[in-house]
Design brief:
The chain has 13 helices and 17 strands. The chain is of the alpha/beta class and 416 residues long.
Length: 416
Amino acid sequence: MARVPIAIVGCGGMGGRHLYGLQELYGTDMCNVELVAACDLRRENAELLADNAAKLLGKRPLVFTDMAEMVRAIPDLQAVDITTDSGSHHVVATAAFDLGLHVMCEKPLALTIRGCNLILEAQKRAGKILSVAEQYRRDPMRRLVKALIDAEAIGRPYILFEISAGGGNQIIIWPWRHYKHIGGIVVDAGVHTCDVMQYYLGAPREVMARTGLYEKIRYKGERLGVQDFYRHWYAEVPDQITATAEDMLMSMITFESGVIAQWTTFVSAHGKGFGQSVLYGSRGSLHDPGSRNGRPVVLHLDGQGELSGDAVLDLVPDFHLDEVTAKLFGGDRLGHYEMGFPAADRKLVALEYQELGACILEGKQPEVDGLVGRKALAMCNAALESGVVNRTVRLDEIEEERTAVYEAEINRHWGI
């Protein structure tokens, strides 16, 4: 199979995490990309990723600190996977397009709609592929939920409750995720939730929200992030930081279909954390198990009681996973799967890479393109804008930059 030469740009924890996804894809007969370069402003980061790539993939990529130099040195390089901090996505992605490269960019596409639009304009100039690395919707259980909703297994959707709490006052994942100008945990994590909501329910119309910052001082815990991807840099993290990004959002989202969602995320919750995702319809309820855990979808139907696992599949006889997902997860009709977070995470990243390769080689379009990625960010930022302007905010206001009070400070920081 032909392989597209690619580079990872941003060789910290997320870049290393993506490397495991490449290892997963390399171990199949569906691998259509090849890592040929690692690029980071900090050369030691790129060297570390290259060393790990040599162990995991069997070949050491070339190391660079500048993308333009990388393109000159590797003229057949076709694409980059951008895994830098969220705030710099618009800078790196526009530069990559101007260098003639295809782009896969970690979510969120940018921190502001203006940042997204700069990327989209650069993509249009370049005529290249833009894929946003949104993995939650790719999980087999999320695919099954979507099929059940479309088949009206619970009747006509009414109300979605998407609620989570936890985090306390510890640094979550990495310090920049608590800084408004660079990340912000509500956006960085919430864009996943927003993408899944639009995947399930279609286009959102308007948002009303309240937001807040409860824990301004956050402390370094015994570990950072998930699965120790950031362990190498643990000593660089200060014992405490001053957060500038919101850590609470409580919102009501109205979709064009008329469905209403209550989306609440509180990442300064002390004590026992929890998370619930439940969709209520005219005939019953659907409990979404989330991503990367393999737990079954659970339905409660009027007059039938509870259905879960393989029993749910009877409601969607035409449901099948795509060929690549089926091969990675071991079946095309799954009511659940048995694997832990690390394995599921690797496979979902592998799906992102495989799709990128297919888009470049076969002229396909990515499932989560720039417009879909921008819409997910617009949902987040509509909620944050609503918290500032104290009124309902329409999605078209955000996407057309007619309302950007919250975003203005971030745009000024980046000079855009």
